[in-house]
Design brief:
Growth Hormone, Chain: A, 0% strand, transport, MFS_dom, MFS_Transporters, cell membrane, transmembrane
Length: 387
């Protein structure tokens, strides 16, 4: 994955992708360790879901400023600042002895990763005027690799040491990535006052019905993604009678599939249309969720998780290619950051929703209710395909 591009732009992509792998391995390791964290702090599943939603809400709030600053200053300075904020957050998680400390660390990680992602989009948009689909596919493959490694990290920690120790290797590796980002940066770190200018951005983006429909697709997809990723291991243990180890391996399988699917989806969207590719991906998600709800056999669960993984992961590089085609390169960071603020804010409600539904009913009911989200996504994508 990291040898797709070999020039300076390719090195920028590789280091950024490595930063995503390291960051997300720390962000998402919380999900498979959630039963232990719930027991440690003596909290409910609803409270755990709200704390994760807080992290993604902080992520959403940081998206637009990160993109705006990257447009007006440079992506390099925003990348270094965002990684430093994440390091502070992981340090807080590694030393958390109270639930408020834990929540505070999640908030810092969410804000840092929000800035990091939008700065990365500006970086890739600047360096890849061609092969954007493949570059975004590599980026999303890194997302899935980091997510898969989070499961392996959880396997290494759960039952052998304290859950807080999972964040120590993330701290060290993220420090090395920050140094690498700094060494590859060829622009000066100039700092000046930047107006966020939300009104102008809003007028530019929200003057067409198309923007609202795109936001619907990405908001609902993010809602399903956040809700599923946060509670899938717990759901598999509670409703499918899997052990903690088996549920964690199944969780990692989602992202192993994503590592293969996302570059493929990005490449396919370059010669097929992104929207058609997105419809097919969502169809896989519907089939996967249906199988996940009704089956208990090993083969059935494997097939369900494969199809569900395609639906959850393939939609992202496809929609990023679509947005990079319709948004202006000069304002890509700010515009994408504003859109990401909206759909990440909606998506941040996913863990709170699934956790609350599970506490009030059960995990099977919570996951079954996500069919409504897939129905909305298909309808919106069909509308975009007819334009």
């Amino acid at each position: 994955m990291f040898e797709t591009f070999r020039n300076h732009s390719g090195k920028q992509l590789n280091v950024h992708a490595l930063g995503i792998v390291v960051s997300l391995s720390g962000v998402l390791v919380v999900a498979p360790m959630l039963p232990e964290i719930i027991d440690y702090f003596e909290i409910t599943s609803a409270e755990a879901g709200v704390s994760i939603s807080f992290m993604w809400a902080c992520n959403a709030l940081a998206q637009y400023p990160g993109g705006r600053y990257s447009d007006r200053l440079s992506s390099g300075i925003v990348l270094v600042v965002s990684q430093s904020v994440m390091i502070a957050g992981f340090l807080l998680l590694a030393t958390a002895v109270t639930f408020p400390m834990f929540v505070g660390g999640l908030g810092l990680i969410g804000a840092g990763y929000g800035m990091f992602e939008t700065a990365g989009f500006v970086l890739l948009g600047t360096h890849f005027t061609e092969k954007r689909g493949r570059a975004f596919g590599v980026r999303d493959a890194a997302v899935n690799l980091g997510s898969a490694l989070s499961a392996l990290l959880a396997v290494a920690v759960v039952g052998t040491t304290q859950w807080r120790d999972a964040f120590l290797p993330v701290l060290v590796l993220l420090g090395f990535v920050t140094v690498g980002s700094h060494r590859l940066n060829r622009r000066s770190y100039s700092v000046s006052r930047v107006r966020l200018d939300l009104v102008t951005v809003g007028r530019r983006l929200f003057r067409s019905r198309q923007t609202y429909v795109v936001l619907l697709v990405m908001s609902v997809s993010m809602f399903v993604w956040q809700g599923s990723a946060s509670f899938l291991p717990t759901y598999l243990q509670a409703s499918k009678s899997l052990t903690s180890f088996e549920a964690t391996v199944a969780f990692s399988f989602i992202f192993v599939v994503g590592m293969v699917v996302t570059p493929l989806a990005g490449a396919v969207s370059e010669f097929w249309t992104p929207i058609r590719t997105g419809i097919v991906a969502t169809g896989f998600g519907i089939v996967g969720l249906a199988l996940l709800v009704v089956t208990d056999s090993f083969v059935g669960l494997a097939a369900a998780l494969f199809a569900y993984a395609v639906g959850l992961t393939a939609i992202w590089p496809v929609m990023y290619v679509y947005l990079s085609e319709v948004l202006s390169d000069e304002t890509l960071g700010g515009d994408l950051g504003a859109l990401r603020t909206v759909y990440f804010a909606v998506g941040s409600l996913g863990p709170a929703y699934v956790g609350t539904m599970a506490a009030r009913f059960d995990y099977s009911t919570a996951f079954t209710s996500l069919f409504v989200c897939f129905g909305l996504t298909v309808g919106a994508l069909v509308w975009l395909a007819r334009r």
